[in-house]
């Protein structure tokens, strides 16, 4: 919800409050599920795929436990290849796998899913949402054009909290 996103940003700026980047990413990814309009979901689960990044997958399991999207339980899937991403609604590609972004963008172009990364400038290179560190805080860039091209819609609230790139 908007409140949980705002609380996250307030907490992340409070001095003395620290958390891992993975925890911050997990909280934000969970909130993205509520601030993106998804097409009708098939199956019983909403799948967040994480490419070769077990620490984030673990944090996501903790953050999304007993939560749902459109009445569907959230499943965290550890991906070993981009081919597995076709069954996901969100795919996280970590910085050390950033060369896979171009392949992912082409392979997943017609699939209504959100590609999230965490390396500078990747939102300009086709990532839908890209985490960046600014003034010691995790922020995110949003490429609304690529998100909408995939058939998803971003809430105005999320656009307002992120850094819009074109």
Describe this structure in words.
The protein is of the alpha/beta class and 166 residues long. The chain is 35% helix and 26% strand. The protein has helices at residues 2-13, 21-35, 54-64, 100-107, 144-149, 156-161, and strands spanning 36-37, 45-51, 68-69, 72-79, 90-93, 114-117, 129-134, 137-142, 153-154, 163-164. The strands form 2 sheets. The chain has an 8-stranded mixed β-sheet, with helices on both faces. Strands 1-9 form a two-stranded antiparallel ribbon. Strand 3 and strand 4 (72-79) form a beta hairpin. The chain is globular. 36% of the residues are buried.
Name the average pLDDT.
89
Overall spatial form: globular
The biggest sheet amounts to:
8 strands, mixed
- Taking strands numbered 1, 2, ... along the chain, how are they ordered across the largest sheet? 3-4-2-5-6-7-8-10
Task: Give the number of helices.
Answer: 6
Into which percent range does the helicity of residues fall? Answer: 25-40%
Over all CA atoms, what is the radius of gyration? Answer: 15 Å
Count of DSSP strands = 10
Structural class: alpha/beta
Question: Could you tell me the strand content as a percent range?
Answer: 25-35%
Query: N-to-C terminal Cα separation, in Å?
Result: 26 Å
Order of helices and strands: HHEEHEEEHEEEHEHE
Oligomeric form of this entry? single chain
Unreliable stretches, pLDDT < 50, 5 or more residues? 13-18
